[in-house]
Specification:
- This protein has helices at residues 21-37, 41-58, 62-67, 73-86, 105-130, 135-145, 147-153, 157-187, 197-203, 205-228, 247-266, and strands at residues 94-98, 101-104.
- With 275 residues, it is mainly α.
- The chain has one domain.
- A two-stranded antiparallel ribbon has the order 1-2.
- Helix 2 runs antiparallel to helix 11 (247-266).
- The chain starts with 20 loop residues before the first helix and ends in a 9-residue tail after the last helix.
Length: 275
Amino acid sequence: MKSITFGQFYPSSSPMHRLDPRMKVILAILYIVCSFLCQSTAAFIALLVSSVLIILLSNIPAKIVLRSVRPILIIIMITSLINVFMVKGEPENLLVSWNFINIYTEGVFNAIFIVVRIFALVIGSSMFLTYTTTPIMLTDAIERLLSPLHKLFKLKVHEFAMMMTIALRFIPTFVDEADKIISAQKSRGMDFNSGGLIKRAKAFVPVLIPLFASAYHKAIDLATAMECRCYRGGDGRTRMTVLKLKPRDFVAFLFMLLLGVGVVLLNRVPFLYVM
């Protein structure tokens, strides 16, 4: 449970931290789109290089970034294995043939591409947002980006942004809470590691009940604290820090556009393998 780092802010003075939060939200969306546009080996290599570059620019240790991928390793492994064994290719690209098991070069490349794509999605959702942006700045950015919806359709944009930020902020809190509950249950003799899947699922019931109770009490305490501070939503609220785009924000946006154009062009290059 301690390996789950999604939703945590890593303080630093890196170029990524100094970007405008509104631009970081846009960059995260564009980066995720770029990851889904990749179809060739050359494009995925460019995506992987850009991920490493983003980590270096964020000044966040690589072990912390890799630790955020650990909770979804099982999903990555299962998806990769399905692609290795299920994707069919050309007869001349057959690598292994044993009984009903046939492994083609296309399946191996698909598995590698899925790992790179998931890694890029984690980078796009964490490096641009939670790791380098405080919850308050993220709330302000989402509200400012969605402000046209408030003017056109009278939607509660501020409340929506606040709910999203609170949800992100409390992910690490509930992870720590779940870890404490699991440790307490283990000290009472609870076994979470033995038995089949159904037995293990039943073993987590004593964890979920106090975890939901804790989440309910924290929600009540947070609502009470917000009411005591006279919080009444976004109407009439002012900001101590007014967001302003700077030249470095436009440079980062241009870099992301160039990455997207480069990925589209590299998809046409017959380099090793094309999906």
